[in-house]
Amino acid sequence: MHFARSRLFMLTVALLASGYALAESGPPAADGGTAAALVTEAARYEHAEGVPRDYGRAIELYCAAAKAGNADGQYGLGWMYANGRGVTRDDAVAAHLFSLAARQGHVQAQNLQKLAAAVKPVTPPCLVPPPKVVQAPDEAAPGREPNYPRGHIYNVVGKVSPKYEVDPQLVLAFISVESGFNANAVSPKNAQGLMQLIPETARRFRVKDAFNAEDNIKGGVAYLQWLLAFFKGDVPLVAAAYNAGERAVEKYRGIPPYPETRDYVRRITALYRKTTHPYRQNLVPASPMLSPRVASN
Question: How far apart (Å, rounded) are the C-alpha atoms in residues 59 and 84?
């Protein structure tokens, strides 16, 4: 993996040193060429051609062109990620973008794609579709269940959750808040998939593909099972730990004072109104901060 990533970086540097410039023309876009114009403008900001260099603006323009399906836009955005221009260098994101452009016959992208074959592609945040909106119970009539979308994800949750002794309704609440049922969601902190697993958590619970719905849900539910045992079924603490980490909850001996975490707990508990949940004893020693206050069912 490291060797392949190094070769990808070295080739992009070599192309840059040779004076390669992004082509101003590309496959015609559905909007009559606007995407190609965006690429031209992005290249000006990237290379300071008649305007001050502004990598942030270049990324914004390349992304707009990439969304329109323009191969040069996809390649240009990939180039920015491969070289760390205005963003943290990320070969996995670059590999995804080069792959998109290569499928359209972009020669340079095809060359880089071959070297990036060992890198698992990751969709850049700006190309991730917006999550679906799920109606929360506090926006519905009292006593009504959340209006979760039925389909493959709903069915997977129903199949996986009982195996880990976790209420499917609790899992659906986490998926709703974490990703809005968007299996391709990626956060700015690189949390991935339906249950927004960061790479460390994915490895911890043996998730091979965070963008595979069933694999992601298995990992997320396994983590919920662990947190339920660690915090003895206290749902608000479990929600806080899922957002901020179990050590933060222990540090503050309760829900951390972070506005994001407090809002996160509020949203989870609005969807899942039970404050306690049965937990598996002896799965993991309970957090030392807890006194025997929640009985196991």
Answer: 11
Q: Locate 12 and state its tokens.
A: 């992009």
Q: Which residues are catalytic?
A: 178
Q: Is 92 exposed, middle or buried (0-12, 13-18, 19+ CB in 10 A)?
A: middle
- 53 in a structural domain: yes
Domain that holds residue 163: 137-271
What would the pLDDT profile of 81-105 be if each residue is shown by its tens digit? Answer: 989 998 888 888 888 898 888 888 9
Q: How far apart are CA 179 and CA 196, in angstroms?
A: 7
This prediction's pTM: 0.56
Long-range contacts, stretch 193-199, CB < 8 angstroms, 24+ apart: 194/153, 194/220, 195/219, 195/220, 195/221, 195/223, 197/223
Q: Report yes or no on 209 lying in a domain.
A: yes
- The total number of structural domains that make up the chain: 2
Taking a C-beta distance cutoff of 8 angstroms, is the pair 57, 120 a contact? no
